[in-house]
Amino acid sequence: MTPDLPLTAEDVAEIAEILAHSGYRELDLSTRRFRLRVSRGADQDGGGDGGLTQEWQWAGDGSAGAGPASAETAGEAAADPDLIASPLPGTFYHAPQPGAPPFVAVGDAITADTVVGIVETMKLMNPVHAGRAGTVAAVLAANGALVAKGTPLVRLT
Question: Which residues make beta-bridge pairs with 52?
């Protein structure tokens, strides 16, 4: 079973609003379930209104199914040039919407710009681009699977 996202979109918007109106550039929130870091980027004149970035991770207790893939699996993806890894944690989707054909299938020839899936993080849909050309040998992550940053999603040949 995939755990729910730790915060709603409204929660994140409220946190971002608090940060935007404070003198702080970064907020790091940790609970027993998750960790959220929100930071305010610098604009062109060095001020703090260049937009907000966020990252989060599950606190995971190390048991099977407790959270996203392990650091060992993520390290494997970074070391293997034939693997396309998740650029961030979230829920991986094969298709743009339920019932739609998948972005890629085994045997498809792809380019660096090909979208191979979507990772949903805190209600934001983030396209995952292949980053290199090749032929899809396997789609490794299940549709709807919770993935960590660096989790192998697709293997190329």
Answer: 40
Report mean pLDDT in 10-residue bins for the chain, 157 residues.
Answer: 56 75 76 70 53 58 38 56 91 92 96 94 88 95 91 94
pLDDT of residue 21: 77
Query: What residues have CB less than 8 Å from 71, skipping those under 6 apart?
Result: 148, 150
Neighbour order of strands in the sheet with 152-156? 83-85, 152-156, 134-139, 109-110
Question: What is the sign, positive or negative, of the torsion defined by CA atoms of 71, 74, 78, 79?
Answer: positive
Phi, psi of 122 (to 5 degrees): 50, 50
Class of the domain covering 71-156: mainly beta
Four-residue CA torsion sign, 79, 81, 84, 87: positive
Q: Which residues contact 152 (CB under 8 A, 6 or more apart)?
A: 73, 76, 77, 80, 83, 84, 85, 140, 141
CA angle 6-10-14, nearest 5°? Answer: 100
